[in-house]
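User: tokens in, sequence out, please.
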């Protein structure tokens, strides 16, 4: 069996309002992984345009995600940070994968059904084919590990199916060209646990979301200390003191969420947080949470704002990242063309 070098790939869409959920659910994970893996982190602008985008906002959102990666501690020198549209091989391989993936597979994608809603006839073809592009993002680097949220698990399974079908359909050609017995690895998801599911500060039953009309529902990574403090103080709670045991959070979604946020930011378990705060009222707990959130997120926001004033610096990181990524991507595409029988 072919052994592939371990490599991490993940993508974040530049669609605005990066918030605590993105940070705890994805970006902190990216930061940790750089210790042990060679990592590529991609701002997936081609995915963003599967639904309508305002071009000027898209530009600033691409720079914002890049700034967030760096501000959170991803080193752009040891890893590769880049934006998808600068490496044309993503779309080139995506076309090949459109021809490998089956209609039946894509028809099962729940995210498409949710996003397209009732007006499916009017959804873009890109929104439908989106998972094939995602598979290409990963496999154009022959990445082996992909940190994603629970919501992307199905897309990752599709990427594995595509890799496997390609390996099977072209097994003879793969061998004839000396690539071993399989060409693509089957990428493995690194799924974050439910502990990092961050809910709205206004409604503990709803996920924290970039598209919630209430800005008070989320802590944006770009919020400054005053805004963070204000939002935490305004966060919805109930009237009881905090329980000492985790079971006591069961029917209290807002309390559960704030305890979960505290735990994640402080790298503790919820049980540990309750050991310290069981019996405390919310004003005490919120004061502690304000201090913690400001200490952890404040510097990221400050650094992001600082980076965003230096567009040339950000754009240079993206350009150099793309140049490095392209080297890998071109090598894969040349091999894929040989395997398919194209003349080059
Ligand atoms: N679809 C992912 C999301 O919406 C973003 C994404 C695009 C991605 N390409 C990827 C994630 C490749 C992991 C690997 O969150």
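Assistant: Sequence out:
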């Amino acid at each position: 069996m072919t052994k592939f070098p371990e490599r991490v790939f993940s993508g974040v869409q530049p669609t605005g309002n990066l918030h605590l959920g993105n940070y705890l659910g994805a970006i902190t994970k990216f930061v940790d992984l750089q210790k042990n893996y060679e990592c590529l982190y991609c701002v997936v602008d081609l995915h963003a345009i599967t639904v309508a985008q305002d071009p000027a906002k898209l530009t600033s959102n691409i720079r914002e995600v890049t700034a967030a990666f760096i501000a959170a501690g991803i080193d752009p020198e040891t890893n590769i940070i880049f934006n998808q549209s600068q490496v044309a091989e993503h779309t080139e391989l995506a076309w090949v994968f459109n021809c490998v993936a089956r209609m039946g597979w894509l028809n099962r994608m729940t995210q498409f059904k949710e996003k397209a809603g009732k007006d499916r006839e009017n959804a873009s073809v890109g929104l439908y084919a989106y998972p094939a592009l995602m598979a290409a993002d990963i496999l154009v680097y022959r990445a082996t590990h992909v940190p994603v949220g629970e919501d992307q698990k199905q897309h990752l399974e599709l990427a594995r199916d595509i890799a496997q079908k390609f390996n099977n359909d072209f097994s003879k050609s793969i061998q004839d060209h000396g690539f071993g017995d399989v060409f693509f690895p089957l990428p493995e998801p690194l799924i974050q646990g439910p502990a990092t599911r961050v809910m709205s500060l206004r409604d503990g039953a709803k996920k924290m979301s970039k598209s919630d009309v209430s800005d008070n529902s989320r802590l944006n990574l770009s919020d400054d200390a005053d805004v963070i403090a204000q939002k935490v103080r305004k966060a919805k709670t109930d009237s009881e003191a905090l329980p000492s045991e985790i079971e006591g959070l069961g029917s209290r979604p807002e309390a559960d969420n704030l305890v979960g946020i505290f735990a994640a930011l402080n790298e503790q378990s919820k049980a540990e947080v309750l050991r310290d705060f069981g019996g405390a009222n919310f004003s005490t707990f919120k004061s502690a949470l304000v201090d913690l959130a400001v200490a952890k997120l404040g510097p990221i926001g400050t650094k992001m704002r600082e980076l965003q004033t230096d567009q040339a610096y950000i754009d240079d990181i993206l350009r150099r990242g793309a140049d490095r990524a392209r080297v890998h991507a071109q090598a894969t595409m040349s091999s894929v063309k040989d395997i398919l029988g194209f003349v080059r």
